[in-house]
């Protein structure tokens, strides 16, 4: 399943990375805050759907499903945003609709994969801004050195799924829709420059 998802989403993944590359030029706290707000408008509502389908708690292979939206909220509060501002943050209107287990796994492939990229972004911003893993940087820092281990555990769960044609198509479609929606959302937010 993992190999099929990787092949099917490769070009979309690269497109998202190109969008994110422009963020590396934004080394101010305002630019960093805009990045987190962009994620905050996308990740929590998508996680809500995934968790509704897959539930919470432990999976095989030591993988544990955990929401990362609360980390974004914590970071944004540390950067001075009030609860009122957080409640008013714009949400992506084109969040992919997730209705089945294999769609949820395909979406989770994107969400969990983003933690690996988050490690790179964290190191970039940590060198330039006053953030730490516990103050303003918890979302990108993720599990720190354990991030790659968590990713491998998720891949073990994914690869244990029977790769029937129906399962394959559902997972690939959801992953592709997630990447496309994320790319469009990043582009719209960054060109619009809005924080709420």
Description:
With 196 residues, this protein is an all-alpha fold. It contains nine helices and two strands, in the order αααββαααααα. Strand 1 and strand 2 form a beta hairpin. Helix 2 runs antiparallel to helix 9 (165-192). The radius of gyration is 16 Å and the shape is globular.
Helical amount among residues, as a percent range? 55-70%
Q: Please compute the radius of gyration using only Cα atoms.
A: 16 Å
Shape: globular
| Distance between the ends | 37 Å
With helices defined by DSSP (H or I, 4 residues minimum), what is the helix count? 9
Number of distinct beta strands: 2
Low-confidence stretches: none
Largest sheet: spatial strand order: 1-2
The SS-based structural class is: mainly alpha
Summed over residues and divided by their number, the pLDDT gives a mean of 91
């Amino acid at each position: 399943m993992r190999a099929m998802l990787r092949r099917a989403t490769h070009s979309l993944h690269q497109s998202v990375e190109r969008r994110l590359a422009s963020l590396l030029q934004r080394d101010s706290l305002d630019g960093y805050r805009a990045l987190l707000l962009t994620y905050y408008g996308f990740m929590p509502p998508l996680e809500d759907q995934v968790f509704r389908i897959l539930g919470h708690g432990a999976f095989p292979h030591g993988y544990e499903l955990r929401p990362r939206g609360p980390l974004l909220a914590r970071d944004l509060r540390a950067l001075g945003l009030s609860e009122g501002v957080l409640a008013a943050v714009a949400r992506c209107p084109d969040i992919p609709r997730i209705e089945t287990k294999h769609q949820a796994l395909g979406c989770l492939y994107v969400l969990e994969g983003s933690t690996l990229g988050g490690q790179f972004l964290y190191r970039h911003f940590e060198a330039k801004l006053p953030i730490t893993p516990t103050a303003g940087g918890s979302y990108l820092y993720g599990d720190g050195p354990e991030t790659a281990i968590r990713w491998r555990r998720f891949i073990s769960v994914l690869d244990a799924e029977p790769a029937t044609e129906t399962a394959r198509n559902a997972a690939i479609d959801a992953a592709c829709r997630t990447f496309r929606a994320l790319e469009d959302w990043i582009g719209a937010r960054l060109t619009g420059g809005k924080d709420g």
